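Lab notebook, bench 4. Still working through the backlog of constructs that have no structural model yet. Next entry is a single chain of 212 residues. Request: give me the structure tokens for it.
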Amino acid sequence: MKGLKPAKLRRVAIELEKIVPRYPRPRRELEQYRTPADLAVRMALFLASRNECWVAVDLGTGTGMLAFASSILGLYAVGLDIDAEGLNSATASRAYSRLIVDFVQGDVRFLPLRAGSRFCVLMNPPFGGTRRSSSDAMFVEQAAGLSPKVIVSIHSLRSGVLEFVSAMLERLGYGVVEVLREEFPLPAQFDTHRRRVYRIPVLVIAAEKANR
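Model written out:
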């Protein structure tokens, strides 16, 4: 995921860390952890560097980190989430007052959005970082239903996940073009957490729509 110089990307990430809020009352069942700003910038840059991406759709946006990262890099962004409290935090933030992002409350299972010819999707879905069950497969299915040119998403680095997600994307008409292996920091925010930060190995998978 290439483009801007590293120093510029760091400055953008530092700014996003300051102006994008954290979850006021995170819900464990929704795996509400804010996407790290540096990772969000790199994911958004992958979309911004492609001429076919005019609109960035952030599924499961939470407080808007991926949507705001897309906007700061020049894309029009739409963030969708089921949780009203997270969306209220996003629209009350300094980021919202400075960037062009629209937020929609809705369930990813029943997308209240129409497919767009210049859509691209980026997302940090619940991927079971602290439990065995996950919803990321459903998010991928729903993302493909918008017929985006590009899908960039975060998944667990557990054994077999890359092969599973790659096969699903291929079935949906997408080919994986880039894979990053990262550590996702989960801050202690629930009463069962015993460490200050948990670092979860993750995959960032970028896929493009096949020409058919």
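Notes after review: The first helix runs from residue 6 to 19. The beta strands are 55-59, 76-81, 101-105, 119-123, 150-156, 174-187, 197-209. Flag for follow-up if needed.
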